[in-house]
Design a protein that fits this description.
By secondary structure, the chain is α/β, with parallel strands linked by helices. Helices cover 32% and strands 25% of the residues. It starts with a helix and ends in a 7-residue tail after the last strand. The structure holds S-adenosylmethionine.
């Protein structure tokens, strides 16, 4: 059975092509950035920590990939950097092996998610990995679940993938797909 992060990758890989612009909203150590860069034309990747950019830059260099725009800025500003997006991923929470007090925040996460939903092309997909064991994590989890539950079913399909019998705070996945024949007009 796929773990939630594996499911997130598969969900996005199914629709990505070498023609597409995609977003990594939370670059971190660059695992998702690399995954996307191998499959898309261009990745626009965000993080607010210099350490994340350094790790990701190194990872991409080792893989010989140069199709990523690495941005040291919050994902809530993504509308200044992207227009049409085919796919996006959020990995919420803190950067492993770094300052655990720097975490994604409900307000900025929702702003970014809303902007990404607006810029998503029909048939495009967003994966949101939710980690909620840290302080404030449950508030962010609930804010994201509330936001995606309210999306119009005419415009989006919102799905959840989570284990039901694991101890502690197992991360889970929210998947969004913009309806293919959705027409803004
Ligand atoms: C769980 S980590 C991401 C892990 C990453 N996807 C990977 O593959 O290693 C969450 C990241 O979100 C970043 N972050 C926090 N607030 C942010 C914001 N407003 N915009 C962009 N990134 C943010 C943190 O600095 C941290 O690196």
């Amino acid at each position: 059975m796929l773990r939630p992060l594996e499911m997130a990758h598969q969900f996005l890989a199914e629709i990505m092509t070498k023609e597409d612009v995609v977003v990594d909203a939370t670059m971190g150590n660059g695992h998702d950035t690399l995954f996307l860069a191998e499959r898309a034309k261009k990745v626009v990747a965000f993080d607010i920590q210099e350490q994340a950019l350094e790790q990701t830059r190194e990872r991409l260099e080792k893989a010989g990939l140069s199709n990523v725009e690495l941005l040291l800025t919050g994902h809530e500003r993504l509308d200044a950097y992207v227009e049409e997006v085919k796919a996006g991923i959020f990995n919420l929470g803190y950067l492993p092996n770094a300052d655990k007090s720097v975490v994604t925040q409900p307000q900025t996460t929702l702003l970014a998610l809303e902007k990404l939903c607006q810029r998503l092309v029909p048939g495009g997909r967003i994966a949101v990995m939710i980690y909620y064991g840290h302080t404030g994590g449950a508030v962010e989890r609930d804010a994201v679940l509330d936001f995606v539950s309210r999306l119009s079913q005419r415009e989006f399909t919102a799905t959840i993938y989570r284990t039901l019998n694991q101890m502690n705070h197992p991360p889970f996945l929210v998947m969004l797909e913009k309806i293919k024949d959705y027409n803004h007009g």
